[in-house]
Amino acid sequence: MTVMELCLHTKERAERWAAMNDNGTTLLVLKQDERSKALQNLLAGQGVETELVGSVQQARRTLEHGTFYAAIFADTELADGTWADVLALATTVHGPVPVIVVSRFADTKLYIHALERGAADFIVPPFGVHEVAHVLRCAISRWSKDSKAGGKLVGGVDRMAS
């Protein structure tokens, strides 16, 4: 992809993003179990359309299909990769999008590592309606505001190129 194509691709994504509201489609890249169903049901209850896939490869096929996602929830570990693989995939295939890491348990080191690597946030079950809605709304809002300013918000830190 040339720089011009990349710029056009990014501009197109930004325009599509601007046209969306907080309740855009969200991709869930999670092991398919009670936890993923609980998160999917919670989001649906908030009016958020979701698509659930269970592996990095399924996420790749889904993202390559061209659907624009407002946010992605990624499991810490999947059968064929981790949240970091989903984050890299989202950035290269989809374009900048907030990725929220979903862990089975609280892990401060992993939380900090995920934010430093570019995750928008980190959540653990049990999932509360207000908590998940707040995390999703803030992740989308921060990315949206920063993309309009021409930079990318990474892990809550503004890392715009100088």
Task: Provide a short characterization of the protein structure.
This protein has 162 residues and is α/β, with parallel strands linked by helices.
What report would you give on this structure?
With 162 residues, this protein is of the alpha/beta class. It has a single domain, classed as Rossmann fold (3-Layer(aba) Sandwich), CATH 3.40.50.2300. 49% of the residues lie in helices and 17% in strands. The protein is built from 6 helices and 9 strands, in the order H-E-H-E-H-E-E-E-H-E-H-E-H-E-E. The chain has helices spanning 3-19, 34-45, 56-64, 83-94, 108-117, 129-148, and strands at 26-29, 50-53, 71-75, 77-78, 81-82, 99-102, 121-123, 153-154, 157-158. The radius of gyration is 15 Å and the shape is globular. Residues 1-11, 13-23 and 151-162 have low confidence and may be disordered.
Structural class: alpha/beta
* Structural shape: globular
- CATH homologous superfamily designation: Response regulator
Helical residue percent band: 40-55%
Provide the CATH architecture: 3-Layer(aba) Sandwich
Main sheet properties: 5 strands, parallel
> Would you count the extended β strands for me?
9
Strand order of the largest sheet: 2-1-3-6-7
Q: In the residues, how many domains can be counted?
A: 1
Distance between the termini: 23 Å
Q: What's the average pLDDT?
A: 80
Q: What key attributes describe this structure?
A:
single chain; 162 residues; alpha/beta; Rossmann fold; 5-stranded parallel β-sheet; two-stranded antiparallel sheet; 6 helices; 9 strands; globular; disordered N terminus; disordered C terminus
